[in-house]
Amino acid sequence: MSILKNINKILGEIPEEIKLVAVSKTRSIEEIKEVYDFGIRDFGENKVQEMILKEEKLNKDIKWHLIGHLQRNKVKYIVGKVYLIHSLDNINLLREIEKEYKKQNLTANSLIEINIGREESKTGILAENLDELIFEIEKCENVKILGLMAIIPRGDEIACLNYFKKVKELYDRLSKIKYKNISMKILSMGMTSDYKYAVREGSNMVRIGEGIFGKRNYNREG
Ligand SMILES: *Cc1c(COP(=O)(O)O)cnc(C)c1O
How many angstroms does the Cα of residue 59 sit away from the middle of ligand 1? Predict the structure, then answer.
């Protein structure tokens, strides 16, 4: 199927109020332009360098979502270029973001990434460590938390629904508490293989790559 057919299909399947982020990692400028011309303005990248190169070459009204693991030493490059950081998951990273955004008097809009499957190989914070991170977030001046992001372990329908439900419960729990610098507005969960389940469990932002662009080829530079 063509890129445009894929997007049409996905937009037909998800309710209108759910934001579709087109995950453009490894994709060429031409491929991204095709999606852009369709009207999509939210694009997700997982590497800082790749995102910055594309940001320079493409239209300035694109909202860039940094969805991959963010290393502290890369934070300085993204200030003013990222619409939303999806992958805040530790205090040291938080402090670096606060420091670099403060220098430019800008606000970093972020989501907290939750490692809901407790996978050692995965990024994201464990739910039991959330309190410590929130304690630090409340002291920030240049960081705003707008919600949560999760990548769940691969599994069947029941397993997926269960993980998404757990993230939604956490999201709802945090929504009820009044924290400084935190408001639960965005629940970023669901990728090509599981977005239908994520949407069923209350996601309002899905990050879809292969479902739009076709299979990724990691040997090709974006
Ligand atoms: C690559 C990636 C996606 C998109 O994955 P697809 O399977 O291509 O839809 C979503 N979220 C994150 C964090 C990713 O790195």
Answer: 22
